[in-house]
């Protein structure tokens, strides 16, 4: 497979939330003294007096200014690490580990029956920010356009609350890199981060402009779809347009594949349940009177269960092979399963969380519809019981917009609500 095709695939994978890096997560972050100095300075500014508590709004602003993408979150990681080490100072038994740019904090309980996890993702996007906010990104062409700056501020806030009193249960806080593409959840899981601490239940949230500020939305079962990137290259034999019998037309093979593969959705899958297979790019040929030697097709598959996803992968490979045999054009199929599994909330845990939310005065709860967007937390939910919820942040701009500007007033109340909930898990 040529480099151009590979880069095309990588670009297409970036759209779903990027490539599955698949590398070992055991590497430790190299110390970068310059970053450290800068981070130290910022941390000093986040606490006005010794016991004033973290200034989560300022932390969010600091993080918003230093967005980094896909396993490049070094400055972000150093910033978080500096605050975390300050928080856990003098606390015996607390362990801090660094995996790539991620950070894991383990807090042992006094009489644990469970180990409870909380995950915050850390990465930004390769987007030029156009918000005109006073704390807009200082990193060229990079932006926290998915609200992960809020997720980190909330994660730190909950960590601070959990550390502020002795806890019966064990806690594990995971600051995870590369959600927007590197499959950071899988990288950390494969590195043993989650298994090592034997988490009993795990939680995460994602901001959403679809809901008013402060609204909490979730549902038991499938919350969001899984996603796979598909790339097919057909290679035939070039020739004169007037003598097709002496050539193998890759465009014809690709056309046949695209038409046949639609049957996967209409026959093998269930479109009413939200399975979607879309091809976004097709590239091939050089000039009108020459038969194309190669054609590249890239697309994306969304499915609501892992089984459906795997069935679709199998059928795509079979159809590509069948077309190859009938046309004579060689098919090269690349499917990135990655870590973007469907997000399936545990029924019992979700009910407990929702009951708690509904019992709180002034908190609005909404039953969320299934979303066809993908999140690599789905990979964690496949292995560990848990749940994810949307936190409304209002505004008119969607996630990933260069003008995305969530209402940060949601940070303090959600930190209080989640901390109280997590503390009271029996
Ligand atoms: Zn995103
Ligand atoms: Zn996100």
Q: What is this structure, in a nutshell?
A:
This protein is an alpha/beta fold and 426 residues long. The protein has helices at residues 3-16, 33-46, 56-65, 74-88, 148-163, 184-190, 193-196, 250-268, 306-327, 347-358, 377-383, 411-423, and strands at 95-99, 102-107, 115-121, 170-176, 201-208, 216-218, 221-224, 226-235, 239-240, 276-284, 290-291, 294-303, 330-336, 343-345, 365-367, 386-392.
What do the pLDDT scores average to? 87
Overall number of structural domains: 2
Number of helices: 12
Per the CATH scheme, the topology name of the largest domain is Aminopeptidase
Sheet of most strands: 8 strands, mixed
Give the beta-strand count. Answer: 16
Give the DSSP E fraction (strand runs of 2 or more residues).
Answer: 15-25%
Q: What ions, cofactors and ligands are bound?
A: zinc ion
Principal-axis shape? elongated
Instruction: Specify the helix fraction band.
Output: 25-40%
Order of helices and strands: HHHHEEEHEHHEEEEEHEEEHEEHEHEH
Instruction: Tell me the distance between the termini.
Output: 54 Å
CATH class of the largest domain: Alpha Beta
Rg calculated over all Cα atoms: 24 Å
CATH architecture call of the largest domain: 3-Layer(aba) Sandwich
> Would you identify the regions where 5 or more consecutive residues have pLDDT less than 50?
1-34, 47-51
Q: Widest sheet: strand order?
A: 1-2-4-3-5-16-6-15
Structural class: alpha/beta
